[in-house]
Inverse folding.
């Protein structure tokens, strides 16, 4: 374990962080309490609780508690402790599978690779929003009700009578407005304000403040899975898709500290086994166009009155009419030989 900066700790998967750690990897009791509270909910697979510490599992990515950022890197070769090398491997894998895409120059891409993984997500989002602002934030029609001094749109008679029985000069009307106040821009605005809270990079902070000047004040929107699932993309708003992908990761994985407000938790963590499986699939698909089949579930075992037991291979490769079944494992086999359990699973 090594320290990257004053507020960043870098560890490898399956390693532990304890209060008793000295120097570079020490966490404070307040930060540990926030992590324990977050992990005690029962549905947090990223780490397990230890006495005065936590131990990370097979998940990799970035975990932020207050102003402390913990980077969890993948590691197979126990002979190499070069954190920059493993960080580069993780970032390239995430970029390859399409978790994020920085549409910037190679110089900018190389510059942000030396920062934390969280900085790269924030950088990716800011690049996308800057592009949208440059193109012009899209506008949409929306219905609005208001008590106006001029008659426009449709008079809402019931509310007009109840609210304006004394004020004869007013009209309660319902009319159409064409502006930037819609759910896509509200999500961008909410994410930018979230970044102002979680970002610790002064270079990125100024860009956030500049972007917020291009947005009118917008009402808050509740971030949820259904909010993002209900977004319908079309030719007009397709340019928002990549920004929405990163906004979804940031908003849905942010857990605010409602007590003191200083020890929020942000978890951008990925199952390394699934990430490796996806990386292998994307890499093979690039070289065997048309020969890679999507995962298909096949019924394997069934007893009367019981549910069907199914099998689903990780990757199916078809070449010269021969079908190859591939099983991905994020580990080094002992003595360069697969284990009995792995062979049984393949069989």
């Amino acid at each position: 374990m090594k320290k990257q900066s004053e507020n960043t700790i870098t560890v490898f998967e399956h390693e532990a962080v304890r209060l008793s750690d000295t120097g570079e990897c020490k966490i404070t009791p307040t930060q540990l309490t926030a992590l324990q509270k977050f992990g005690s909910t029962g549905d947090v697979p990223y780490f397990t609780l230890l006495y005065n510490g936590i131990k990370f599992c097979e998940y990799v990515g970035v975990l932020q508690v207050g102003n402390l950022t913990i980077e969890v890197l993948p590691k197979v070769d126990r002979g190499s402790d070069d954190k920059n090398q493993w960080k580069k491997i993780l970032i390239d894998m995430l970029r390859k599978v399409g978790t994020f895409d920085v549409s910037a120059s190679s110089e900018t891409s190389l510059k942000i690779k030396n920062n934390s993984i969280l900085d790269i997500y924030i950088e990716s989002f800011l690049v996308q929003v800057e592009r949208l602002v440059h193109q012009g934030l899209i506008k949409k029609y929306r219905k609005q009700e208001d008590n106006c001094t001029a008659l426009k749109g449709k008079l809402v008679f019931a509310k007009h009578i109840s609210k304006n029985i004394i004020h004869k000069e007013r009209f309660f009307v319902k009319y159409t407005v064409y502006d930037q106040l819609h759910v896509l821009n509200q999500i961008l605005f909410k994410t930018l304000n979230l970044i102002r809270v979680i970002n610790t990079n002064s270079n990125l902070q100024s860009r956030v403040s500049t972007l917020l000047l291009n947005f009118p004040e917008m009402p808050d929107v509740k971030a949820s899975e259904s909010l993002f699932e209900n977004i319908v993309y079309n030719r007009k708003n397709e340019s928002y898709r990549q920004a929405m992908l990163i906004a979804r990761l940031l908003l849905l994985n942010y857990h605010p500290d409602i007590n003191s407000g200083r020890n929020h938790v942000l978890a951008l963590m990925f199952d390394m086994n699934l990430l490796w499986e996806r990386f292998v699939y994307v890499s093979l698909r690039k070289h065997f166009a048309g020969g890679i089949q999507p995962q298909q579930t096949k019924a394997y075992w069934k007893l009367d009155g019981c549910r069907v037991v199914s099998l689903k291979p990780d990757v199916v490769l078809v070449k010269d009419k021969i079908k190859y079944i591939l099983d991905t494992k994020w580990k080094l086999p002992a003595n360069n030989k697969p284990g009995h359990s792995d062979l049984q699973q393949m069989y």
Q: What stands out?
A: Residues 212 and 311 are 49 Å apart (CA to CA). DSSP finds eleven helices and 17 strands in the chain. The chain has a mean pLDDT of 82.
